[in-house]
Amino acid sequence: MPQEVALNALGQPLVPCSFDPMTGFFRDGCCKTDTNDLGRHLVCAIVTKEFLQFSLEKGNDLITPRPEFAFPGLAPGDQWCLCINRWVEALEANCAPHIKLESTHILALKTVSLEMLERYAIS
């Protein structure tokens, strides 16, 4: 059976988000998802110091390396597939990071409008 092509928020084939650090629910560099991805890691974000601190305060430490999970820890400027709800929380707290729209999964549009995503998009 052929593999279904994942689409981005623009309705085009999903472009990889990051291979260094390796990101994605499947750790394949893409913000792909399936029913096992309870966090819905849909948004390809370019993380900032402010966002990393916000996430830490919310109980998700994305800064500290966790070698046992092959997680190097993130630094400002890294690209990472974020959970859509965390990105929305950051948006509401005025610290949402910019995103790569071509690498953000189309299912993000079930939570956030394309117009809002476009406001935070960089190329």
Question: What does this protein look like?
Answer:
With 123 residues, this protein is an alpha+beta fold. It has a single domain (1-123), classed as Phenylalanyl-tRNA Synthetase, Chain B, domain 1, CATH 3.30.56.110. Helices cover 20% and strands 11% of the residues. It has a 3-stranded antiparallel β-sheet. The protein is globular.
Report the CATH C-level class: Alpha Beta
Largest sheet: 3 strands, antiparallel
Counting H and I runs of at least 4 residues, what is the number of helices? 3
Helicity level: 10-25%
- Give the full name of the CATH homologous superfamily: Protein of unknown function DUF2237
> How many structural domains are formed by the residues?
1
Would you give the CATH topology? Phenylalanyl-tRNA Synthetase, Chain B, domain 1
CATH architecture: 2-Layer Sandwich
Strand order of the largest sheet: 2-1-3
Overall mean confidence score, pLDDT? 94
Protein topology:
Elements: E1 41-46, H1 49-57, E2 79-83, H2 84-92, E3 98-99, H3 114-120
Antiparallel strand pairs: 1-2, 1-3
Keywords:
single chain, 123 residues, alpha+beta, Phenylalanyl-tRNA Synthetase, Chain B, domain 1, three-stranded antiparallel sheet, 3 strands, 20% helix, globular
Task: Offer a quick outline of the entry.
The chain is α+β, with helices and mostly antiparallel strands.
